[in-house]
Design goal:
Blueprint (H helix, E strand, L loop, with lengths): L17 H8 L5 H15 L3 E4 L1 E6 L25 H13 L4 E6 L5 H17 L4 E5 L5 H9 L4 E3 L7 H7 L8 H13 L3 E4 L2 E2 L6 H14 L3 E2 L2 E2 L8 H4 L6 H18 L4 E2 L3 H6 L3 H7 L4 E2 L6 H4 L15 H14 L3 E3 L7 H9 L4
Parallel strand pairs: 1-11, 1-12, 2-3, 3-4, 4-5, 5-6, 6-8, 7-9, 8-10
Helix pairs in contact: 1-8, 2-10, 3-4, 8-10
The structure holds S-adenosyl-L-homocysteine and iron/sulfur cluster.
Iron/sulfur cluster binds next to loops.
C-alpha cells in the first residue's frame, strides 16, 4: 500500500502510519522524491555538514553467538585479538592530528573486569591526550553499573543496535540459550537513554523473513525511543556463519541497498535532528553507498582508524571496505566524495546531534 501521491512526499508526517511506511519501504512511492525530501530536511535543519567519527575496533573477542555475525563465539577460524591500550591511544592521536573530534571504540561483547577497566582507563587518558573529543562506545550489553562507570570515566555516547524491534525475529536470528535476550537488549538500551548518554541504536536491514512492516515497526520504535543517533545498514552474508543455511530468501543486494536508503530517508524525515550514519555495511554492499547514503539524509561517516594489522580480523561480514587504506588517504577520499555530493566535511568539531543538544537545553531527560 502506498499512502502518498507523487507530489505529497514532502508532507510526510513526523509519525506516519505503519502501513504508509511499509508501502514506501516496499518501493511503492517515488524514491527520488523521498530521498530529495530527506536531504532537503537535513540541509534545512543541520546544513550541508558531514561529521566524521574515527572508528577503532579494539577487540574481536565476543561472548555472543549471533547467527549473522562473523565474530560470533563459535567462529573458530577467527584470529582473535585485543589491541593493547597504547596502540589504541596512538590510533586515536593519529585521528586527532588529522582533525577528528569524535571517536568510536567498538568490540565484541565482553563482561570481564579487565576489558571494562582497560576501556575506563583509556577514556580517562583520552581527556588529556585528545581533549575536546566525544568518546563513543559500542561494546554491547553491559550491566547498568558498568555503563555508569564508563560514563564517569569519560564516555559520551553509546551505540547499541536493537538489531530488530521484533522479539520474534530477534529470537530467529539469535540462539535461544539464555545469553541472547531481546528483552535484556531493550532494557540495556532504555537504561542508556535514561542515564545521560547520547544514545544511538539501529537495525539490520534485509534479513531473511523480515518484512517491510517489520522495518516500519523499527522506525516507529526508534522514534518512540527518542534516540539521538542511528547506525543501520544492510545485512551482509558472512562466510562460516549459520545464517544463510538457516534461512532461504535473503533479499538480493539491490533490494537490501534500496531498503537501507529508504530507511535512512524516512528516519531523517521522522527524526530531523538526529545523527544518521552512512554505514560501512552500506558502503560495502554497493560501491556508491557513501554518496547514496548522504543523499538520502545521512550526515555521519566513520573512517576506520584500527591499526591495519588487526583490521582484517574484525570481520563482521565479508568484503568490509577500507581494509587497506591509511587514515590520511581515507579522509582525503571522503572529503572529495562528500564534496561531489555538495556536502562538506566539518573537522575539529565533535558534531553533537542537534536532537541531543535540544533535549539538554530543555533539561528534560525522560
Ligand atoms: N558487539 C557489539 C558491537 C559490535 S557488532 C554489539 O553487538 O552491539 C556491531 C554491529 O555489527 C551489530 O550491532 C550488527 O548490527 C552488525 N553486524 C553484525 N553482523 C553483521 C552482518 N553480517 N551484516 C551487517 N551487519 C552486521
Ligand atoms: Fe558479538 Fe556483536 Fe557480533 Fe553479536 S553482533 S556476535 S554481540 S560482535
Amino acid at each position: 500500500m502506498n499512502c502518498l501521491q507523487d507530489d505529497e512526499v514532502l508532507d510526510l508526517p513526523e509519525t506516519p502510519s505503519r502501513a504508509c511506511l511499509a508501502g514506501l519501504l516496499d518501493g511503492g512511492g517515488p524514491d527520488q522524491r523521498l530521498f530529495d525530501a530527506a536531504e532537503a530536511r537535513l540541509r534545512r535543519d543541520i546544513g550541508p555538514r558531514v561529521y566524521l567519527r574515527g572508528l577503532v575496533e579494539i577487540s574481536n573477542r565476543c561472548r555472543k553467538n549471533c547467527f549473522y555475525c562473523g565474530l560470533r563465539r563459535d567462529c573458530a577460524s577467527v584470529d582473535r585479538y585485543t589491541i593493547p591500550p597504547e596502540e589504541i591511544l596512538e590510533a586515536l592521536e593519529g585521528g586527532y592530528r588529522l582533525g577528528l573530534r569524535s571517536f568510536l571504540l567498538q568490540s565484541g561483547e565482553m563482561l570481564g573486569k579487565d576489558h571494562i577497566e582497560t576501556v575506563a582507563r583509556l577514556l580517562r587518558e583520552c581527556s588529556s591526550v585528545i581533549p575536546g573529543s566525544r568518546m563513543v562506545l559500542s561494546l554491547g550489553e553491559l550491566p547498568p553499573e558498568t555503563y555508569d562507570m564508563l560514563r564517569e570515566a569519560g564516555g559520551d555516547r553509546y551505540l547499541l543496535r536493537i538489531e530488530t524491534s521484533s522479539p520474534l525475529l530477534y529470537r530467529r536470528y539469535h540462539p535461544d540459550d539464555g545469553v541472547h535476550s531481546h528483552r535484556e537488549r531493550l532494557k540495556a538500551l532504555e537504561y542508556l537513554r535514561s542515564s545521560g548518554w547520547q544514545t544511538g541504536t539501529g537495525v539490520l536491514i534485509g534479513l531473511p523473513e523480515q518484512s517491510t512492516e517489520d522495518l516500519a515497526d523499527d522506525l516507529l520504535f526508534m522514534k518512540g525511543m527518542d534516540i539521538d543517533m542511528i547506525g543501520m545498514g544492510p545485512y551482509i552474508e558472512s562466510p562460516g556463519t549459520p545464517m544463510p543455511e538457516l534461512f532461504e530468501g535473503i533479499p538480493a543486494p539491490g533490494v537490501r541497498t534500496l531498503r537501507t536508503l529508504r530507511m535512512i530517508a524516512l528516519a531523517r524525515l521522522m527524526m530531523p535532528g538526529i545523527n544518521i550514519a552512512a554505514t560501512t555495511a552500506l558502503q560495502t554492499i554497493t560501491p556508491d553507498g557513501l554518496e547514496r547514503g548522504l543523499m538520502a539524509g545521512a550526515n555521519v561517516v566513520m573512517p576506520n582508524l584500527t591499526p591495519s594489522r588487526y583490521r582484517e580480523n574484525y570481520d563482521l561480514y565479508s568484503g568490509k571496505t577500507e581494509v587497506r587504506d591509511n587514515p590520511e588517504t581515507m579522509i582525503a577520499a571522503l572529503r572529495r566524495r562528500c564534496g561531489e555530493t555538495g556536502r562538506k566535511i566539518i573537522m575539529e568539531d565533535p558534531g553533537d546531534p542537534l536532537h541531543f543538544l535540544r533535549r539538554m537545553e530543555k533539561g528534560v531527560d525522560r
